[in-house]
Design brief:
Length: 252
């Protein structure tokens, strides 16, 4: 049974305001004493884990706050799907809201608004080495390098481009026009996320082997050699990103 992921909300994007992108300040002594690992902070719910990542669905209710917690490892932040939201109309530009943080800091997040803040944090377990902007500035002040974004993409056919990469991962953005499909058969292990206006035929999981889809976080795991079909919903543009792991064993 295919699953439809609805459009991302502007309120989801507000969560990224609270995510540090530079070097974090040292906590106060009382904060340091109370700091807990991210996975012990009760607003961070582990939804998927393997040898590459730990993925957390984060939800902070209105007028609530997280405990002071540590981000020890680098991570990628993505928006989750939003239930019952209208799909993005065809032709509507929608840049992906994806961020990268090298980790090594502690913080607490306060939601002073009237709507819950939601986010997906993908903790990267392997050393990432250097980080390079491709078509998106995830490293402030660093120029874009080898951007492969089409200058005038054809809105009637699917297209994709590279957002950024590290020594360990490549992060790409995909756009699918209404009714179009994209079949992914990755030659390396891959995680798809931030799906919006897209159906996928991956079964719900997690499973020991093979692809699967985790609907609340909007994450789909595509192991090397698997095949998953992504299909845009009618009368809307579908969007998603993929994270490919460079040190995964490629298909011969």
């Amino acid at each position: 049974m295919p699953f439809t992921l609805a459009r991302l909300s502007f309120l989801t994007a507000l969560f990224f305001v609270f995510l540090p992108s530079g070097k974090a300040q040292a906590p106060l002594p009382q904060e340091a004493a109370a700091t807990i690992p991210m996975e012990q902070e009760h607003h961070h719910q582990l939804v998927f884990a393997n040898s590459y990542v730990k993925a957390f669905y984060v939800e902070i209710p209105a007028h609530d706050a997280t405990l002071y917690h540590r981000h020890d490892l680098p991570y990628v932040s993505l928006p989750p799907p939003l239930a019952n939201a209208p799909a993005v109309p065809a032709g509507t530009p929608q840049e992906p809201r994806v961020s990268y943080n090298p980790g090594g800091f502690s913080h607490a997040v306060t939601n002073s608004g009237d709507v819950a803040l939601r986010n997906v944090a993908i903790e990267l377990l392997h050393p990432q080495g250097s980080v390079r902007n491709r078509c998106q500035e995830v490293v402030r002040g660093q120029p874009l390098n080898s951007c492969d974004k089409p200058t005038s993409p054809d809105p009637s056919v699917p297209y994709h481009y590279t957002l950024f990469e590290t020594d360990e991962i490549v992060v790409e953005y995909f756009a699918l026009p209404p009714h179009s499909t994209f079949t992914s058969s990755p030659n390396r292990d891959m995680l798809a996320g931030a799906l919006s206006g897209v159906n996928t035929n991956a079964p719900t999981g997690p499973r020991a082997n093979g692809p699967f889809f985790e609907p609340r976080s909007g994450l789909a795991w595509l192991p090397t050699g698997s095949t998953v079909l992504f299909e845009a919903v009618p009368d809307a543009v579908g969007h998603f990103i993929t994270i490919k792991f460079k040190d995964a064993k490629p298909v011969p």
